[in-house]
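Data availability (excerpt). The following record was deposited with the supplementary files.
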Amino acid sequence: MPSTQPYDDEELLKASALPPSKLVEELTRLVKQKADGEKVLAAVSGGIDSTVAALVTIRALGERVHPVFIDTGFMREGEAGQVKSSFDLVSPRKLRVINVEERFYTAVKGISDAEKKRLAFRETFYSVLRDLTHEINVGLLVQGTIAPDWIETTGGIKTQHNVLRQLGIRTEEKFGFRLLEPLAYLYKDQVRALGEQLGLPQAFISRQPFPGPGLLVRVPGEVIRIKIDLLRATTAIVEEKMDGLGGSQWFAAIFDAANKRDQPLVSDADNWVFTQKVTGVKGDTRVYGGFIGVGPSANTSPREFDNKAYRLYTDANTLLREVLNTSDEFFRVCVRLAAKHDSAQGYSIVIRAVKTSDFMTADVLRPNFPTLKYLAEEILEIHPDIRDVYYDVTPKPPATIEYE
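Predicted structure:
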């Protein structure tokens, strides 16, 4: 049976209750103790969790640590170079970038199911790390798993790629390395406070999270290269334009163009049903369900289009209640902000932005409508295959923050 705790380790559990200044010292001591003289491979994604875990380990073990970044091909524009530059500025041990894009594309090719994609990603990710540990003769892997990762995984909400032992996966037998996860009892706010103690710049500490599988979990359904390319370009615009609006996380996802529903679930607007299922939360478990967009037709006059989209967006709470109270099929709703046409060709872009302190629950960020409208129009110009743009108005729960 999967464990509900990341370790049978009273010392790590007790350390999680310490203030940041004492926590740094205690984790340094515990890492040194648990490494027991071994060399260490530190998996760095560029996020706050893995960076802090690596820096604590380097603080404890110095030159025995080999930090690496796995470029999966599902990263944002220029991500590998940015991660290396940022990490090398704060670490005495330089980051090695491993490009294995083709290996990951091959692993997920032809897979549409969200859980199967995550499992294929996880298997490939740790196979790459296994090869690296053999190459440099390392028996210990450090990674930045935190409490919400294993809580959501063991609770059935979603399979985080960096959760292994809680699912009964014996890494020594399967991959040939032991795991060390010094942050496994901590939450995001604690990790950020720890980052401050370690001297990380504030811009890095407040950087929004990026999922381990990267853009993969923002492409519901089968992954093909044009979807990744379009999403990468869209993500750059969304991250830039929505920076500073007060969100905790903001990003874009790409879907096959949504289909018009013949019998509207929401009256006084066209209803658009996405063919791919998306993840949600019901009680304490994960569910897969329908995703519906609501908004005006592309044939509507520009003025009427904007008026209707504005009304739906500003009354999104009523819209959400109407859908959730009348349908068991849909638990996630978005508002159509802009459209080129209504045919079934092309792709739909969905913008997602939330506010949260712990990422276990999240409210929807509500920028002013003109800001979103301008952003949507800019996204439409990226490529002829982008048909329309939506804004997700569903909190967590009933939605998850990501789509897979």
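Summary of structural features: The longest helix spans residues 114-135.
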